[in-house]
Specification:
alpha+beta; 416 residues; zinc; 26% helix; disordered N terminus; 24% strand; Yippee_fam; binds zinc ion
């Protein structure tokens, strides 16, 4: 694709030939430095500065960016991940609710503290509350084994010393099985752990087989697929807030934070997981949005998405273009011929995952109405408005209906 930019400023110091030469080079070798390109052009008889190189590449739509860090995936890993995704693409929610996820994690004593700012008065600068202890190697760390499922968090265990296969099996016996019982996983639950050699050792496999545990086949090098990563992240954030001063304190804080406040007993840290069910009674979770009103009967409430509701995937639906939260079913569309502030807008009979601001009177093209801005509950983008009241009888049909601007919607699901 070529990008045409309006002519601006000084003429290009690089000829089109020179420009295509450096474009070719960075396409083949994205890691080429600007100095390399200056040298290349010099050899070809053109002397330019690094700034000119940068400007030329920018004009062609390329910017110097940091290379993203990704797990080192061999072709076999890629294949295994793809197979895993394909195998489970259509798994119903209930299948995932049967999985007991597990993992080990290292928790640094001062892991997240280094980035924290404090509100304090000048004289309180050395109050321990306001300081960050600087210790070599982050003050030490502890290693934890933990597990959780859709039903809540299981036991958390501190691993002391080097874990070998025998220790791992002991952890499973003393923590996994009691957690499964406590969470009432029922028959048919599935155990997930990664392919660490301790997990896949022959004796461990044998142990799992003897205990009749079903193990989820897991692609290697895929920690990003394990939802427990979200739980570890949340735990680390909470630890930073609690500011443990030593490793013993750290362990205590971890255990406390992973035990849900009573009641209800099944509510747990898992509630903040973006992908897993939540008890509606959990308050204060930053990721959950409670429905302000009972959902439309069309809508199946789900406990498995960040979104309050999601529409059946067989239906033609409209989603928020910014976050993909479902917004409306195509069947609820009344009219496509409305005008919003950003162009065309649609009128819907009902919508989901949408919050409503205060109503106010506005003069619209079709007369005076009381309207309220509506926004995506999930990403908070203003989407359009709701007609609360129409003052003219010809406009009464709009009352209680919703306008969403086309610019904020994307079509999802069964459109083809
Ligand atoms: Zn959104």
């Amino acid at each position: 694709m070529t990008v045409n930019h309006p002519w601006s400023g000084a003429p290009c110091k690089i000829s089109p030939r020179g420009a295509s030469m450096i474009m070719r080079k960075v396409r083949d070798q994205p890691r080429t430095t600007r100095q390399d390109l200056v040298n290349d052009l010099k050899r070809a008889g053109t002397t330019v500065s690094k700034k000119t190189i940068r400007n030329t590449l920018r004009r062609h739509g390329l910017k110097s960016c940091s290379a993203r860090k990704v797990p080192l995936l061999k072709p076999a890993h890629v294949q295994a991940r793809l197979k895993f995704a394909n195998d489970h693409l259509d798994d119903p929610e209930e299948e995932w609710e049967k999985v007991m996820w597990s993992d080990e994690t290292k928790i640094e004593l001062f892991g997240l503290n280094s980035t924290r700012r404090v509100w304090r008065k000048k004289k309180d600068e050395y109050n321990p509350k306001n300081t960050i202890p600087t210790v070599k190697h982050g003050g030490g760390n502890i290693i934890l084994w933990g597990c959780f499922s859709a039903k809540g968090t299981g036991r958390l265990h501190r691993i002391e010393g080097r874990m070998d296969g025998a220790m791992y099996r002991e952890i499973l016996a003393n923590n996994l099985l009691p957690s499964v019982r406590a969470l009432k996983m029922g028959r048919g639950w599935v155990f997930q752990h990664d392919n660490d050699p301790k997990h896949t050792a022959r004796e461990t496999k044998e142990w799992l087989r003897k205990k009749h545990l079903k193990v989820l086949e897991w692609p290697s090098q895929s920690p990003d697929l394990n939802p427990i990563e979200n739980l570890w992240r949340e735990l680390k954030v909470r630890i930073a807030q609690r500011q443990p001063r030593n490793l013993k304190d750290l362990e205590k804080v971890c255990m406390e934070e992973c035990v849900p406040p009573a009641p209800p007993p099944t509510t747990a840290l898992t509630c903040v997981l973006r992908c897993f069910p939540c008890e509606p009674s959990w308050a204060g979770s930053p990721f959950l949005h409670r429905p302000p009103t009972p959902p439309h009967p069309m809508v199946r409430m789900t406990r498995s998405k960040t979104f309050q509701a999601y529409l059946p995937s067989c239906h033609r639906t409209y989603s928020c273009i910014h976050c993909r939260a479902h917004l409306a079913n195509h069947d609820e569309l009344i009219s496509k011929s409305f005008q919003g502030s950003q162009g065309r807008a649609y009128l819907f009979n009902s919508v989901v995952n949408v919050g409503c601001g205060p109503a106010e009177e506005r003069v619209l093209l079709t007369g005076l109405h009381a309207v309220a801005d509506i926004y995506c509950e999930n990403c908070k983008t203003t989407l359009g408005w709701k007609y609360e009241h129409a003052f003219e009888s010809s406009q009464k049909y709009k009352e209680g209906k919703f306008i969403i601007e086309l610019a904020h919607m994307i079509k999802d699901n069964g459109w083809d």
